[in-house]
Amino acid sequence: MIQTFDLKSKVVLITGGYGHLGRAITESLVYHGAKVYVLGRDVDKFNLCFNENAALDKNLFFEETDVSNTISIKNSFNKIFSVEGRIDVLVNNAFYSKGQSPEKMTDEEWSYGIDGNLGSTFRCMREIIPFFKELKGGKIINVSSMYGIVAPQFEVYEGFPSFLNPPHYGAAKAGVIQMTKYYASYLGHLNINVNTITPGPFPSNSVKVNEGFIKALESKTCLNKIGEPEDLAGAFVFLASDASNFITGQNLIIDGGWTAK
């Protein structure tokens, strides 16, 4: 009988693997047996994030990578492939952005945010394809947002303007969902699965201190609570595992029911 959630034979690459959500995703992948490479720009942040967890040591690695730079992505993929002889899963979780105002955002801020949320994902997808072709299969897991599906409910942000979701973020995340479908169709005959995971309200610890804002978020979900990083991690294990071998082109929404209302 196949152990469908066993990741022991798999090499997984994750961008943005030491952030608020990335940490829980990375740890869960390792705990389920995967050998995980965190692709990022700051080894100190990586070490600070994971150095207290000795259980991760033998299957967790850092590879310096700038997802805004194609050459950096190519070099990282080539290096890991030369060491491991395989890459099974790519998780596109990293993003970068600046600017917030729907009315005063500059052209440069708009372009930067679109690139940081959509262009970076495209570059990583494009550069992993040759490796998956050689291996005759692979899995890509992209990360979108509920604001790639619905508009912000602006009353939530009344009194909390610093938390307002910017317009380029949702636009780019909607693009991630469409790009997932495009590449799922384009790569399916090569046994390459492409899916998206779409988180809902998962505020960071620094945001949680604002109790009024958290209550406003909670009121918009069906479960009347916000998400914790651990609530998200299992979906990545599922899509990285053999349990999802017949799933592609899909968007798995994990939002406590926010977008169901």
Indicate the topology.
Elements: E1 11-15, H1 22-31, E2 35-40, H2 43-50, E3 60-64, H3 70-84, E4 89-92, H4 107-135, E5 138-143, H5 167-187, E6 192-199, H6 205-208, H7 211-218, H8 229-240, E7 251-254
Parallel strand pairs: 1-2, 1-4, 2-3, 4-5, 5-6, 6-7
Descriptive report:
41% of the residues lie in helices and 15% in strands. The chain has helices at 22-31, 43-50, 70-84, 107-135, 167-187, 205-208, 211-218, 229-240, and strands at residues 11-15, 35-40, 60-64, 89-92, 138-143, 192-199, 251-254. The chain has one domain (11-255): 3-Layer(aba) Sandwich (Rossmann fold). The chain is globular. Helix 1 packs across helix 8, helix 3 (70-84) packs parallel to helix 4 and helix 4 (107-135) runs parallel beside helix 5. By secondary structure, it is of the alpha/beta class. The model has no long low-confidence stretch (mean pLDDT 96). It has a seven-stranded parallel sheet with strand order 3-2-1-4-5-6-7, with helices on both faces. One of its GO terms (molecular function) is oxidoreductase activity, acting on the CH-OH group of donors, NAD or NADP as acceptor. Belongs to the short-chain dehydrogenases/reductases (SDR) family. This is Gluconate 5-dehydrogenase. One of its GO terms (biological process) is fatty acid elongation. Pfam families: adh_short_C2 (PF13561).
Gist of the model:
By secondary structure, this protein is of the alpha/beta class.
In CATH, what is the class?
Answer: Alpha Beta
- The CATH architecture is 3-Layer(aba) Sandwich
Describe the sheet with the most strands.
Answer: 7 strands, parallel
Task: Work out the oligomeric state of the chains in this entry.
Answer: single chain
